[in-house]
Amino acid sequence: MPSIRLRVWRGGDEGGYQTFEVPRNESQTVLDVVTYVQRELDPTLAYRFACRVGVCGSCAMTVNGRPRWTCRTHVSKVIENGELEVAPLANLPVIKDLAVDMTRFFERWQEARGVFEPTRTRDDDVAPVAPSDPRRQEADRGIECINCGVCWSACDTVRWNPDYLGPAALNRAWTLQNDERDGAQAARLSAVTQKGGCQACHTHQSCEQHCPQRLNPTAGIAGLKRMALRSWSKAGTR
């Protein structure tokens, strides 16, 4: 039976790779390979997964140097000379093996005020939003983010700028800035234009290139920059 030579990161930030021989099967995913190791070879291997079908995003890992959802990454698409290398997501502290601490990622989401703040109560009528509305369409382009952390792991600016809010948080802010029902847009624009905000993005497009949902956070971040410029221009003319 053909096999895969699998190198898996073990330990914490200061760990190293361990090599396993895993049977190779048809239509096998990288998550299948990692699961085989944990169930058949070493039950102490730590990693995350839930849905297995690309809905939750919790199985994101670095495969041959690239952040991916392992449940949707087929071995046949990424294997090189019979070998695979699987590591934790970059730019996040490693808890153990392939599991990372996502705290910093979600804190940036909060700092970008990524929570919808309604302008109506449950006693009011539902606010109508036409699908043809340009702002609705802008929001639609970014709302499929599921917080998997792939864009954060791929982002060059995150790597060297500890204050950067990151593409996912800024993408969320952009969707809310285009939601006419939201009541915190002025405060949110202020939050995402502070140190480490949208202006820190260098437009490398790494987030767009790696996003499993095929979103383009860079486009939303550029929108925030334009929105900020318009706001500053208006303030300067008063």
What does this protein structure show overall?
It is a single chain. The protein is of the alpha+beta class and 238 residues long. It has two domains: 98 residues, Ubiquitin-like (UB roll) (Roll); 134 residues, Alpha-helical ferredoxin (Fumarate Reductase Iron-sulfur Protein, Chain B, domain 2). 36% of the residues lie in helices and 14% in strands. It has ten helices and seven strands. A five-stranded mixed β-sheet has the order 2-1-5-3-4. Strands 6-7 form a two-stranded antiparallel sheet. A hairpin with a 2-residue loop joins strand 6 and strand 7. It is elongated. The relative contact order is 0.13.
- The helical percent reads 25-40%
Instruction: List the helices and strands in order.
Output: EEHEEHEEEHHHHHHHH
Beta fraction of the residues? 5-15%
Count of DSSP helices?
10
Secondary structure topology:
Layout: E1 3-10, E2 16-23, H1 30-41, E3 60-63, E4 66-69, H2 75-78, E5 83-87, E6 94-96, E7 99-100, H3 103-111, H4 134-140, H5 150-154, H6 156-160, H7 167-177, H8 185-191, H9 206-210, H10 217-236
Parallel strand pairs: 1-5
Antiparallel strand pairs: 1-2, 3-4, 3-5, 6-7
Helix pairs in contact: 3-7, 7-10
Which labels suit this protein?
7 strands; 10 helices; elongated; 238 residues; alpha+beta; five-stranded mixed β-sheet; Ubiquitin-like (UB roll); single chain
Give a short summary of the structure.
This protein is an alpha+beta fold and 238 residues long. Helix content is 36%, strand content 14%. The chain has 2 domains: 3-100, Beta-grasp domain (Ubiquitin-like (UB roll)), CATH 3.10.20.30; 103-236, Orthogonal Bundle (Fumarate Reductase Iron-sulfur Protein, Chain B, domain 2).
